[in-house]
Amino acid sequence: MRTKFTKSLLFLFTLIAPFAYAQELQVSGTVTSSEDGLSMPGVSIIVVGTQTGTSTDFDGNFSIIAEQGQTLQFNFIGYADKEVKITGSSMNVVMDPDANVLDEVIVAGVAAGTSKKKLSVSVAKVGE
Predict the structure, then answer these.
(1) Can you point out the beta strands (E) in 1-128?
(2) What are the b/e assignments for 102-111, b being 16+ CB within 10 Å?
(3) Helical residues (DSSP H) of the chain, grouped into ranges
(4) Left if phi > 0, otherwise alpha if psi is -120 to 50, otherwise beta: which for 54?
(5) What Cα–Cα distance (Å) separates residue 101 from each residue in 46, 73, 75, 79, 95?
(6) How far apart are CA 62 and CA 77, in angstroms?
(7) What is the dihedral of CA 111, 117, 118, 122, to 10 degrees?
(8) Are the beta carbons of 47 and 86 closer than 8 angstroms?
(9) Mean pLDDT confidence for 33-56
(10) What is the pLDDT of residue 23?
(11) DSSP code for 26
């Protein structure tokens, strides 16, 4: 009887052990700009190596489910991509502007029509 109980207990621990190591947590925080310290709405956040993602709300706040030790990648047009490793359930991220992002503009898919118009495009570099 005792060996049967021991085997059942060992089997139960074998089933529970993998769940103890891969614990997901809800990571939340705020994304701000290093230029003026203002919150950044619409920043894309992805858990690297997965298809899990979210974006910041109007106040720059975000919340995402991930495992401790995974890496979050933050993307926003005009700012350098930033990767931050998850060390806890709360994090605040400061993004730096990237002056090289708007060096090129490609115009694709100009509408076809019967009249022809001249198209002019001007490009301004960020930070100049």
Answers:
(1) 24-33, 44-47, 53-55, 61-67, 71-76, 79-85, 90-95
(2) eeeeeeeeee
(3) 2-21
(4) beta
(5) 20, 17, 12, 8, 14
(6) 17
(7) -50
(8) no
(9) 94
(10) 79
(11) E
pLDDT, averaged across the chain? 80
**pLDDT score for 45:** 96
Distances (CA, A) of 32 to 35, 40, 75, 95, 114: 9, 5, 12, 6, 47
| Residue 25, helix vs strand vs coil | strand
Question: By C-alpha distance, which of 43, 72, 75, 47 is closest to 59?
Answer: 43
For residue range 65-98, list pLDDT tens digits in order. Answer: 999 999 999 999 999 999 999 999 999 999 999 8
- Evaluate if residue 18 carries a pLDDT over 70: no
Q: From CA 65, how far away is CA 53, in angstroms rounded? A: 9
